[in-house]
């Protein structure tokens, strides 16, 4: 079990009860990865099934959502394979704004 802080920014908070910051406990078989966290978010935190496509596409984070692990781009950290540690901060920021 790993305890992390998850942030939804840039308007993404709308699909998470308008709450930007969440404390989340995630479990997995062995190491707990960002992939496990994403599965947890999709399965447990997105209430409206239609909102899942706003966040996820082809089993990964949708293009246009900047994903940071402890303020570092997740692409530099191994994306979904990154092994989470207690206290990590994972933030998702939409770069797509309506207008």
Number of helices: 3
**Which regions contain 5 or more consecutive residues with pLDDT less than 50?**
none
Reported for the largest beta sheet, the result is:
5 strands, mixed
Provide mean pLDDT, rounded: 94
Q: For this structure, what is the CATH class?
A: Alpha Beta
Percentage of helical residues?
Answer: 10-25%
CATH-level-4 superfamily name:
Beta-grasp domain
Q: Please indicate the percent range of residues in DSSP E strands (runs of 2 or more).
A: 25-35%
The largest beta-sheet arranges its strands as 2-1-7-5-6
> Distance N terminus to C terminus?
41 Å
Class inferred from helices and paired strands: alpha+beta
Task: Report what the structure shows.
The chain is of the alpha+beta class and 99 residues long. It has one domain (2-94): Ubiquitin-like (UB roll) (Roll). Helices cover 20% and strands 31% of the residues. The chain is built from three helices and seven strands. The protein has helices at residues 34-45, 52-55, 74-77; strands at 2-9, 21-26, 56-57, 60-61, 65-69, 72-73, 89-94. The strands form two sheets. The protein has a five-stranded mixed sheet. Strand 3 and strand 4 form a beta hairpin. The longest helix is centred in the middle third of the chain and has 12 residues, at 34-45. The radius of gyration is 13 Å and the shape is globular. The termini are far apart. One of its GO terms (cellular component) is cytosol. There is a cross-link at residue 99 (Glycyl lysine isopeptide (Gly-Lys) (interchain with K-? in acceptor proteins)).
């Amino acid at each position: 079990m790993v305890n992390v802080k998850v942030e939804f920014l840039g308007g993404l908070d709308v699909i998470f009860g308008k709450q930007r910051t969440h404390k989340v406990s995630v479990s997995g078989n062995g190491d707990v990865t960002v992939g496990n966290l994403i599965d947890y978010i999709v399965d447990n935190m997105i209430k409206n099934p239609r909102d899942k496509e706003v966040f996820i596409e082809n089993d990964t984070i949708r293009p246009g959502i900047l994903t940071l692990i402890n303020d570092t781009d997740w692409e530099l950290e191994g994306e979904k394979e990154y092994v989470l540690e207690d206290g990590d901060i994972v933030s998702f920021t939409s770069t797509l704004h309506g207008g």
